[in-house]
Request: fold
Amino acid sequence: MSHLNVSRRRLLKLLGFSAVAAAPVFRLGIGSSRAGGDASVPTRFVGVYHPAGWRVVPRTHWYYESNPEESDGFLFPGRVRNESYALADVAGAWPVASEPLRPLAEHLVFVEGLDNHANRGGNNHMMGLTTMLTGADPLQNYNAPGGMSLDYLHATTAATPFSVIPLGVGPAVRGGTLSFSGPMQPIPIEYDPMAAYSRYFAPFLGDDAEAMAELARRRVLRGSVLDHLGDELDAILPAIPTHDRPRFDAHLEAIRAAELRIDATIADDPSCVDPGMFALNAEDDALIPELTDAMMQLLVAALACDLGRSASFCFGRGTLAFSPTFLGLTDHYHAYSHYGFSDVARQAEYGQLLGWTAEQVASLLTRLDQIPTPDGRSLLFHSLVMWSTDNSNGWAHTVEDTPFILAGQASGGLQTGRVVSYASGTHHNRLLVSAAQALGHDVETFGSEESSKGGALPGLFG
Amino acid sequence: MLSRISILAFLPRYAAMTAVLLQCGCYTGPASSPAEDASTGATDALDSTMGPTGATADSDVTETDAGETGSTGDPPVESSPLYPTRRLTSRELDATIRDAFGLDETFNSYFLPLEPDPPLQVFSNEVAGLVVGAGALETQLEAIERFANRIAWQGSTSPDALADCEELEPRACMRRFISTVGSRLFRRPPEHIDTDSFLQVYDDVLAQSDEDAAYAAVVMAMVLSPRTLYLLPESPQRRAWSVAERLSFFLWGQGPDDALRERAADDSLLDPEVLRAEATRMLSDERARANLGLFYVELLDLTRFEFFFKGFEYESDIGLSRSMLREDFVDTAFALYTEQGTLEALLTDPLTFGDPAIATNYPGEYPGVLAHPVFTWTHAGNRSTHPVERGVAIRERLLCNDLGAPPMDISAIPDTVDEGATMRERLAIHREDAACAGCHEIIDPLGLPFEGYDWVGRARELENGLPVDVSGALSGAGNDVEVEGVFELGLALSQTEAVQRCLARQTLRYALLRETDEADEPVLEEVLAAFWDEGRRLDALVLAVATSDAILQPPGEE
Reply:
């Protein structure tokens, strides 16, 4: 009996028993584009994160109240709640730190007034990172969210070689990520471009006999190993006490997901090009601009090559932050959020750092826009980019009014060029619901059910 | 779709209890009657732990009715300690693989790039967090594939199991390899290894690829096997092996060594005297260092120390690294076991920094592990001390109080009140707010004695040019006492029964891989009795747990 037959048999069995699974596995066929785009071009999702908040000064602080016209970093001052504005109409009030995004205004939606309500307790910065795309109630530790992240959910829509491609820059230590395949299931980010290349690209590049043989060998090896592993777990399962079963079910589901990706390959598409290798010391903060540039190229190439339907990018993770010495600044990213508002010099430096971050995001969007798709659009048109942070105000660890910047048209599902402002107390879970629905997922809640009340946000997508 | 139920499905019964406990705490305010909060059905955890008699403190916490949560259809509380089925942590897996394949520490971790598992609640080895999800498996496949290819590429020369394989034909050699390495990886007698099923993997891959690939596939299949990855329920035939496994993961964080395997093979480990002798041997072995050191790192919530960069002026410029400080902390903790140190010694003995780089940068007095820079650095801000965090760490981790999360609508510690205000003055202001006072009256006085240590843990005498005030108090723990500085605080804590009980409970938790509950009370009482009989020696506490039913898991129960 070949291992393939065993595998198929086990898969069928699993399908019959998958009701206990906490995580959906593959939902092939959904997630493709909606109105306006060519249905053959799938929509991509990209999560982008930077540490420690957006605001130099919190809205509720006396400083802000006595300087109402002052831009607080990224936000548009003087707006009315529950209103939507064309960016062109508020151009005069463009927030200082997000100035680099101005040329891309037609691709953007600034979403304001949302609370990352799940971010409470524990290490607030790390927790905010964890909850940004999960919206799941924390289980005390920052690495222990109660659920799947939006990027991973979207990555389950296709049997691409990988699920999420989680990349970033920042300290070369493990810990902290945006991406989770389920409760307490972090997917670590890759911060070394060479390692990212060798993991995501190397196995699939090259069409010579040697490369093909290597890829074939990898498939045989993984197929055989996963098959054996699945059979072993099946055999062991009856002896596992009931209360320990869900973790074994998750393991079996994971094997199933991995098996379905074994034969996946890189897209045969002219826009899929080898991004090349980048030999940069990922531990050197002075190289953060070069590392960011390299990682952005890898990220865009990974999406163009359809190595995964989702990607994420982290400019450091919470308190795991780099020092922007390349800007002549001496403290590290997270530390800048913790100076008092009266420390004008440090606040100016913080604004400079946020501005640099916005430049990098602008460069990511521009790159996505430069990749053509077969329907005459661009990869940016067929993407939904969601950029945010762990806190609204990193100094006070407040989560109310955390801005989210959306970019790309989600294959036509998102009307861009707007600022949309929601009522105070609107949880960001509802944004996750809206985004998931726009990406083709049939969900009514995301993360915490309680915080998802009200469902999709009105006036955003569609 | 990703509901609370599905989250709890991942957590055994004891974690559901925590979820309830987290919803309450001192922030419910002194005016409310906590036990009557019908909406959660929970007891106010802190109040119940803060009774006048320290002796009953902790048992009250665990009497919260776990069954009431009901979301997971949990069985009723069992009559014996329950040892859960759990996955090894990455650190344990790394050590187990190195041991099984005969690789020493010089084997490049590039070839074994396992992702660390941070603590879920208190300890990283707690069962609830250790899930092999889809994302983790993708990462694990990459890592173990790299390792397996490396082992296969090395050929038969390195792993000792293949040392004289030249005389055997490849398949026979592979059979012996599976049996030898499998026994170590799976913590089972060789005769319990399903050699044929792994040989089938070898044959399958060989039929489609080359011999190296077949070899790599066997290595991958064995390392990724649930028999390697999980501490599985014991079968009656291998009870001594299970005891060996539990003991070894408790003390060393890795599988049993050859000596312990022998005691398992002839069942002698089930003899309490032999078990005690083995535990004593293992406790003083260097392999206990990392695991017992890690116990204190995680107990005191110091895992994020390695992530807590505070600006290079404190690090690269002075030749001092955080890993250096962390190793020093682990050495300090481990020395207390090998030198029969007591709880008092842990919390009051003056630290001596072996490394000159640390000694130079940390002049002054550092009494006990709470004064170690790793503690005071971690529980501090970027440029300020953090008495609240320091107090919370002591409340939650050494007194086993569950404070719950602060309410969402409170403000942070004021920072613009007065530029010249001391931390103590700023904290006094927030205690004037009734919403804050409920908790901070009992938290802040535990953190303020640490004001003699700055945000990187250096001893200091001045703050903003004023002499630091290190007065504080321990209250609500059955041993109310005013203290001056960390030495007096450490002494008071060590003499508090609630602290002794909490340390015993946390040690038991480390062995049982889960939060303890009322079913564990008999074992806890035995352990405590031994701890007290031996003058509160830390090694006696660990030995008592190592020889208790937590490790033995007498048959007849689940």
